[in-house]
Design a protein that fits this description.
single chain; alpha/beta; binds flavin-adenine dinucleotide
Length: 480
């Protein structure tokens, strides 16, 4: 018996199992494995088994492009330190070739893990519901299960206005296949995906402009941090906020006209749509299940159990439209797989503080979900911070949120050097119930970016009269 991906051979026309998982991305793979380890007979149904969005067209290729861009930035920045370097010579073919080579390595590793799944579990078909616990597959096979996990991920939303542009329009599903870097690119959307890729392109000498219909960067609710993000990223990247777009063909190019807060016209070699990703639920025929859906067509789901109403149906990963990041897809796969296997013994599982990170330079991170009107806050700037000045990356602003009564941390909006790492310290502190005062009694090595949090923590301590403040009133080292 061989294990792994389906052979596309013949199958019985009707299949039965305890848990059927639709979608073999990160969430679905974890859900199937968790259910199988719990003793359930499982089926894992996917129309491609391509190796997860993260590895193929998501986290990994985007970070590979950013890594190339940051290498170019380092060469340009060398002169700041008195080190002579020529303007970097960017070989677009080589950049994209390295990206794909490394990306393919990540995909191969994922496919190897799928190959370890026992024979007969993986089914290469598209699935749709025919009832609460029954599915029809693309080849006419029927599946009957005791419980079903929906882990179908999300797909890029491309506004209809861009459809006539055909191949000139890119999404995350096509941009990493470009043979070389384009001459110029218009990026639609100033969310994490749009800003990460736009900043990478401009650093790789691609003439890049960002167009965003709202006034906000990355849906940020903190107006001060949002302003700083716009200012700092805007120093190297042209961004147009509050604009509506019209796009037409201009020979081989896209002619973009924008109006609103600003107006203009320009032709670009390509247009990258990064205007959000919608849960991939539309052709599942959810109506056959009778489960409730919200006005976006997304099933109403209990965040702690991932159960849809009282049905034996569970929703995990990007398909549920919340927390669309990798570690959450994985954890949700675990919750959904556990509860699907145990159904009807469904148990709530505590969710950790949410983190979202935008891997721009500097990075932006949002941790927790505090109500800013109900929280105490402390603010700290990185414009004059010691370590940031040493490394010539002194820009950014962080705001930490805490409970009014005792200063217990509830969240943070962090924009500055190393905030992708510091976000974890804040999230772990929230999980441990740390207060601003208790954090200040912990060691802060000098000179580090972590020291830059101290002014914000002290402001919170002062507001709650935390006794730790006396204990930690040390001589401030330079720039801390
Ligand atoms: C460009 C980009 C960059 C990102 N960067 C980061 C990052 O840096 N850090 C981070 O944490 N997250 C990042 N993410 C998000 C992260 O990639 C996702 O949260 C995660 O991959 C979602 O996994 P999933 O299992 O929900 O979906 P997927 O991996 O997309 O799996 C869904 C699967 O379901 C299958 N499917 C769909 N419908 C059906 C059907 N009807 N029948 C059968 N099969 C079906 C699909 O073919 C697919 O294989 C990024 C995403 C993108 C797009």
């Amino acid at each position: 018996m061989t294990a792994g991906r389906p052979s596309d051979g013949t199958r019985p026309s009707g299949m039965r199992c305890d848990v059927a998982v639709i979608g073999a991305g990160t969430a679905g793979l974890v859900a199937e494995r968790t259910a199988r380890k719990a003793g359930a007979q499982t089926l894992l149904i996917d129309d491609g088994f391509a190796g997860t969005t993260c590895a193929t067209v998501g986290c990994m290729p985007s970070k590979l492009l950013i890594a190339a861009a940051n290498a170019a930035k380092s060469v340009r920045k060398a002169a700041t330190f008195g080190i002579g370097a020529l303007e970097p010579a960017i070989d677009g073919h080589a950049v994209m070739a390295r990206l794909r080579e490394e990306r393919d390595g990540f995909v191969a590793a994922t496919l190897r893990s799928i190959d370890e799944i026992p024979t007969g579990i993986c089914v290469r078909q598209r699935a749709r519901f025919t009832g609460r616990t029954t599915l029809a597959l693309g080849d006419g096979t029927t599946v009957s299960a005791k419980a079903i996990v929906i882990a179908t991920g999300a797909r890029p939303s491309v506004p209809k206005v861009f459809e006539p542009l055909g191949d000139l329009v890119l999404t995350n599903e096509s941009v990493f296949e470009l043979p070389s870097l384009p001459e110029s690119i218009a990026v639609v959307g100033a969310g994490p995906l749009g800003l990460e890729l736009a900043q990478a392109f401009v650093r790789l000498d691609v003439d890049t402009e960002v167009f965003e219909q709202s006034d906000h960067v990355a849906s940020l609710r903190d107006p001060d941090v949002a302003k700083e993000v716009k200012r700092v990223i805007g120093e190297e990247l042209i961004m147009h906020f509050g604009v509506k777009l019209k796009a037409t063909h201009d020979g081989d190019l896209v002619r973009l006209a924008w109006s609103g807060a600003s107006s203009g016209e320009k032709s670009f070699a390509r247009l990258l749509v990064a205007a959000g990703r919608s849960p991939e639920l539309h052709d599942l025929n959810l109506v056959a299940t009778g489960i409730g859906v919200d006005d976006r067509g997304i099933p109403t789901v209990d965040e702690a159990t991932l159960q849809c109403g009282d049905a034996p149906i569970f929703l995990a990963g990007d398909a549920d439209g919340t927390r669309p990041v990798l570690h959450e897809a994985s954890f949700e796969g675990f919750i959904a797989g556990r509860n699907a296997a145990a159904y009807p013994d469904v148990r709530p599982i505590k969710r950790a503080a949410p983190i979202s990170i935008m891997f721009t330079d500097p990075p932006l991170a949002v941790v927790g979900a505090p109500r800013s009107d109900e929280a105490l806050t402390g603010l700290a700037s990185y414009a004059d911070q010691g370590r940031a000045k040493v490394d010539a990356c002194n820009a950014g602003l962080v705001r930490i949120y805490a409970d009014r009564d005792c200063g217990r941390l509830t969240g943070a909006t962090l924009f500055g050097p190393a905030m992708d790492h510091i976000a974890h310290l804040i999230a772990w502190s929230i999980e441990r119930g740390e207060t601003a005062g208790s954090l200040l009694t912990m060691p802060f090595y000098h000179p580090t970016f972590e020291e830059g949090l101290k002014p914000a923590l002290r402001q919170i301590c002062k507001a709650v009269n935390a006794s730790e403040l006396d204990h930690v009133d040390e001589a401030a080292p330079p720039g801390a």
